[in-house]
Design brief:
mainly beta; two-stranded antiparallel sheet; Prot_inh_Kunz-lg; Trefoil (Acidic Fibroblast Growth Factor, subunit A); Kunitz trypsin inhibitor 5; 195 residues; signal; endopeptidase inhibitor activity
Length: 195
């Protein structure tokens, strides 16, 4: 009887935990007007806090692995470049905590670049490949998570069951006056505006 009760309690805990996770995962990401983000629609990613740079864009990087890095514009009046999102599950609505490709243009998919030897920092590049979720593309998938009353971008792909990945927030790393995006303990708090 005791073992049957333990199994029941274990199932109850597991089921209730899954329910919380599933509920959070189905919540849609919304823009500054409360509209749901949609696959294929262009958006600007903007910082929530004013006076700390503008929207996200690309810039040449010293890194030879990927010639362009994802950066934050220096001035808040700059929106950056519009981008689209492609979820791994091909749904039309972008949802919190789902694997996404972030794409500036047809050939500029975000990826976690190799560690920078000068700074020992992991930066975000634009040499990723769209789609094909799995082991070979694990570095190309990011998530949008709730962060206080807005959002943050996270690298924590779940497109590969056998891969061990480091889960970290995406924040800003200032290098030679350039505000590069990379793995960070301090997330960049963001909002989305339709382009």
């Amino acid at each position: 009887m005791s073992s049957l009760l333990n199994i029941f309690l274990l199932l109850a805990v597991f089921t209730s935990h899954r329910g919380v996770t599933t509920e959070a995962a189905v919540e849609p990401v919304t823009d500054i007007y409360g509209q749901r983000l949609r696959t294929g629609t262009k958006y600007y990613i903007l910082p929530v806090f004013r006076g700390r740079g503008g929207g996200l864009t690309m810039s040449k990087a010293e890194n030879k692995t990927c010639p362009k890095s994802v950066i934050q514009e220096r001035f808040e009046v700059s929106n950056g470049m519009p981008l689209t999102f492609s979820p791994s599950d091909k749904s039309r609505i972008i949802r919190v905590s789902t694997d996404l490709n972030f794409k500036f243009s047809a050939t500029s998919i975000w990826n976690l670049d190799n560690v920078d030897e000068k700074t020992n920092q992991w930066f975000i590049g634009t040499c990723g490949v769209e789609g094909n979720p799995g082991r070979t593309t694990v570095g190309n998938w990011f998530k949008i998570d709730k962060y206080e009353d807005h959002y943050k971008i996270v690298f924590c792909p779940s497109v590969c069951d056998i891969c061990k990945v480091m889960c970290r927030d995406i924040g800003v790393y200032v290098q030679d006056g350039m505000r590069r995006l990379g793995l960070s303990d301090v997330p960049l708090k963001v909002m989305f505006r339709r382009a």
